[in-house]
Amino acid sequence: MAELSTRHLMGIKQLTKEDIDLIFNTADNFKEVINRPIKKVPSLRDITIANLFFENSTRTKLSFELAEKRLSADVINFSASASSLSKGETLIDTVNNILAMKVDMVVMRHPNPGAPIFLSKHINANIINAGDGAHEHPTQALLDAYSIREKLGQVAGKKVVIVGDILHSRVALSNIFCLQKLGAKVMVCGPPTLIPKYIETLGVEVSYQLDRALEWADIAMMLRIQLERQGKQNEVKYFPSLREYHNLYGLTLERLERLNSKLVVMHPGPINRGVEISSELADSAYSIILNQVENGVAIRMAALYLLASSEKIED
Ligand code: CP
Asked: DSSP state, 251?
């Protein structure tokens, strides 16, 4: 059986193109499974998976949990807000307690970049990074590229513009790595204050003008403004107002139709309707946002299945 080149999924940066192709081909099989009347397979029976969420999540948490249950794994869930962390327990004590429960795999979201790498040095379970600060969110990028492949036949040669808060976005970084490994061209677009200075060293193009970027692209990946990573909650810091942001960088049906565009519109969620994307466009035929969510389950089933099949290394 073909195997991944890694026993953890820390980021797209560490994956080869062959790894990504293997995940996609495995996801094709699982997508067929989850559309059957009986959606469950016994592939991960007797495997225990801990979902450790130290930061809020809706899609990723639900999607992993569903993927694990479809594979017949035993699942335990941990949310920092409802845990003893609030009583002063450290990350390593939390982890040691979970370890004592003998888990085989850990899915972790954490506000600090590198937290899953820290974890991998202390436990012998396979680890999947479900988003670490502004660093990486590998399964999101995989499901995004898989959705492009499904919609347009292939990723190679496609032009993708990622629009919005690139500075704070783990989704943008993972997508840049993933799309480039698969042969797509990537542009980022947004206000100069939200585009990191180093970004051109990653081989992407930069535009500060949305209409020009949309004329160039086949796919527009819209990102939300991450107000929670910009200082005080709900405080706009990097541009004058959300209204001005929407006028300059918000994607609307009217804007696409004025440009006579046939773009595919994507968004990883959560959506801020009326800011980076209009409600009308998010719910239109241009949008594949809900296809992304559906594909997330198949991609996560594939990643879990392939990592569980990888060789255990005794530390
Ligand atoms: N796309 C994404 O990571 O969404 P959640 O924060 O809801 O998991």
From this structure: B
Q: Which atom of ligand 1 is nearest to the CA of 130?
A: 3
User: Which among 60, 109, 271 is the best mutation to test ligand 1's pocket, defined by most ligand atoms within 8 Å of the CB?
Assistant: 60
| Statement to judge: residues 200 and 278 lie in one domain | yes
Report yes or no: 295 and 252 within 8 Å, Cβ to Cβ: no
1 part of a folded domain: no
Domain range for 31 is: 12-136+295-314
Residues 146 and 282 in one domain: yes
pTM (predicted TM-score): 0.95
Cα–Cα distances in Å, from 251 out to 187, 244, 256? 16, 13, 8
Q: Is the peptide bond before 111 cis (omega within 30 degrees of 0)?
A: no
Tell me the pLDDT tens digit for each residue of 179-216. Answer: 999 999 999 999 999 999 999 999 999 999 999 999 99
Closest CA to 155 of 23, 7, 306: 23
Query: How many domains is the chain partitioned into structurally?
Result: 2
